[in-house]
C-alpha cells in the first residue's frame, strides 16, 4: 500500500468525506475541528491533557473501550478511546498512548479532535460537548476518513459485487447486534480465485440502530468513492469498516455462519450453474441449525443467571481480572505503609500499577463468608455502573483464596475526614459543600433511575463518600447494595446491615427498604455537611436531641441559622436554608412524604421549585443499648417476623490516605 499523510484544520468546511480516492493510510490519522480553539494553559487545556493521559491505562483494563469526562462547564472535556476487537491488552494501551501523543501534538489548541491508529487499530476522540451514546450531530459534518487501495478489480465483477455486498450486509447486522461492551464482527467469503476478508466495529456506547446506520453509511461512502478497488477502509467517529483480499485481523471467536460464504456465484449461459441451488439450501439449513443452537445457549445462560439470584454472580471477564501477583507488587505485598483503612470485611490498600496508575485495593478477609457475598455483590453491581459521582471499579482478583476489588484511587480521602475534622473543615467553604451535596445527589439519582439497573445502596454515609483531587464526590462501598427490578418499589430483609444514624426508621424497625431509604440517608448527610456535626455523636439540650430533631425544632422556631457551621457563614444563606429544608424533607418519618432523588435534583438546582412543609423526622436512638426491647426485636406486627441487626459502624471501604 502507498502511505499518505493527511491534515485538515478547517474540517467543517469540507463535505462528510475527509479523504477520497486515496490509498489506505498505514500511519496514524488525526483531524482537528474548526472553529473551537482554547488558549495555552487554560482550564480546558489542563482538563484535556488530564483526561487524555488516563485513556491508555483505562481502556486496556476495560475491555478495549473507555469513556469519561473531566471538569465543569464551560471547560468540561469529554473523551473516549476504542481499540479494535482483535487487539491485545498491551497492543491496545500502546496504540491509544501513541494516538494521544499524536493528537495533542497536531491539534494543540483545538476543542475537538479525533485520531485513528494505523489501519484502524484504535481510536481516540475528545470534544467540549457530549459525544457518548450518540452519532455525530446531523448539523455538523462527520469526522470521516476514506481510504482506497490503488489497484482495481478488472474481472468477474458481477460475482465480486454480489458476494461483497452480501458479506458486508451480513457483518453490519452481526456487529450492530453486539453488546454494550463490544460491537465487533469479522467474516470472509469465497470468490473463484480470491477470498474477501472484512471487519466491522462500532463504539459500544451507541445503540444497535445507530451502529447499523453508521456502518451502512461507511459502506456507502466506500462504494461511492472506491468502487472496484482491491480493498479499502472507512473510519468515522463512531464506527470502522475495512475489507481486503488478505487476512488482516486476528480471529478471536468463530463468527456466525454466513449462508453463502462457500457458494461460488457464477453465471453459465444465463442459467444457474449445477450445484448452486444445493449449496444454497445446505448453507441455509446449516445457518438455521446454528441459529437455533445459539438461541438455545442464550436462553440457558439467562435462566442460569436468574436461578443464581440477582446480584450474586461474578462476571469473570478477562478484561476485568487482575493477576494476584500484579496486585501484590502494586501494593508492596500489602504493606502496612500502604494501608488506607480497615472495614468490617477487610482492609483497603493503596497501590501503583506498573504503568504508574494509582489504585485502591479492597482485600476481603479470607475467613469471612459474608465478605464473599459482599465481594460478589460489588463486582456484579460496580462492573455495570459508570458515573462521575461513583467510584469506578477497575477490576478484581479471585485467586489463591484471595478476593480483591481494584478501584480507582481517590486522592482526597472520604467526606467524614473533612466535615468532622477541625483542621480539614477549615479548608471548606459553602461553595465546595454545595458542590459536594449536588454531586452526591446526582450519583444517587443515577443509581435509582438512570443506570441500566436500579440499585438501593443501603449504606450511604459520610465515610462512604470519597473526594477526588477537585473535591468531586464519589459514592463508594456497594457491599450492602441491593438490586431492584425497575418497577419494584420496596424490598424486605430479615437482617439489617448499615450504620445507625443513617438508616431510615422503617428499615431499622421492620426491615423494609426502598429508594426512599437512601433518600433518608442523603438527608442526614446534608444536615451533617451544613452543621459539621456527626449524627451519631450529636446531643443537644436536656432532652438530648439528636441532629435531626434539633434541626427540625430549629426550623420550626425560625432559628435554623443556628444549625449552620460558623465556617460556612460567608456563603449564601438562602442556599444553606434551602438545603436544610431539603434535608428535613428527606428525613421525614413517613416514607411517602419523602421526595424522590429526581425531585431533590430539581430542588437543588432550581430556586423556582416550591418546597413543601416538612413533617416530623424519624427519631431513633444512637446505640442499641438505648433502644427498648420492642425496637431490639424489630417485630413487624404485619408479618410476625423478627429482624436481626448487624451494626456496621466501619465502612468496608474507608479510604484514608497517609
Automatic annotation (TrEMBL):
<feature type="region of interest" description="Disordered">
    <location>
        <begin position="630"/>
        <end position="658"/>
    </location>
</feature>
<keyword id="KW-0325">Glycoprotein</keyword>
<dbReference type="InterPro" id="IPR017441">
    <property type="entry name" value="Protein_kinase_ATP_BS"/>
</dbReference>
<keyword id="KW-0732">Signal</keyword>
<keyword id="KW-0677">Repeat</keyword>
<feature type="domain" description="Gnk2-homologous">
    <location>
        <begin position="141"/>
        <end position="248"/>
    </location>
</feature>
<dbReference type="GO" id="GO:0004674">
    <property type="term" value="F:protein serine/threonine kinase activity"/>
</dbReference>
<feature type="signal peptide">
    <location>
        <begin position="1"/>
        <end position="28"/>
    </location>
</feature>
<keyword id="KW-0597">Phosphoprotein</keyword>
<keyword id="KW-0812">Transmembrane</keyword>
<keyword id="KW-0675">Receptor</keyword>
<dbReference type="Pfam" id="PF07714">
    <property type="entry name" value="PK_Tyr_Ser-Thr"/>
</dbReference>
<feature type="domain" description="Gnk2-homologous">
    <location>
        <begin position="26"/>
        <end position="131"/>
    </location>
</feature>
<dbReference type="InterPro" id="IPR038408">
    <property type="entry name" value="GNK2_sf"/>
</dbReference>
<feature type="transmembrane region" description="Helical">
    <location>
        <begin position="280"/>
        <end position="299"/>
    </location>
</feature>
<keyword id="KW-0067">ATP-binding</keyword>
<keyword id="KW-0547">Nucleotide-binding</keyword>
<dbReference type="Pfam" id="PF01657">
    <property type="entry name" value="Stress-antifung"/>
</dbReference>
<dbReference type="GO" id="GO:0005886">
    <property type="term" value="C:plasma membrane"/>
</dbReference>
<dbReference type="GO" id="GO:0009737">
    <property type="term" value="P:response to abscisic acid"/>
</dbReference>
<keyword id="KW-1133">Transmembrane helix</keyword>
<keyword id="KW-0472">Membrane</keyword>
<dbReference type="InterPro" id="IPR001245">
    <property type="entry name" value="Ser-Thr/Tyr_kinase_cat_dom"/>
</dbReference>
<dbReference type="InterPro" id="IPR000719">
    <property type="entry name" value="Prot_kinase_dom"/>
</dbReference>
<protein>
    <submittedName>
        <fullName>Uncharacterized protein</fullName>
    </submittedName>
</protein>
<dbReference type="GO" id="GO:0005524">
    <property type="term" value="F:ATP binding"/>
</dbReference>
<keyword id="KW-0723">Serine/threonine-protein kinase</keyword>
<feature type="domain" description="Protein kinase">
    <location>
        <begin position="334"/>
        <end position="611"/>
    </location>
</feature>
<dbReference type="InterPro" id="IPR002902">
    <property type="entry name" value="GNK2"/>
</dbReference>
<dbReference type="InterPro" id="IPR011009">
    <property type="entry name" value="Kinase-like_dom_sf"/>
</dbReference>
<dbReference type="InterPro" id="IPR008271">
    <property type="entry name" value="Ser/Thr_kinase_AS"/>
</dbReference>
<keyword id="KW-0418">Kinase</keyword>
<feature type="binding site">
    <location>
        <position position="362"/>
    </location>
    <ligand>
        <name>ATP</name>
    </ligand>
</feature>
<keyword id="KW-0808">Transferase</keyword>
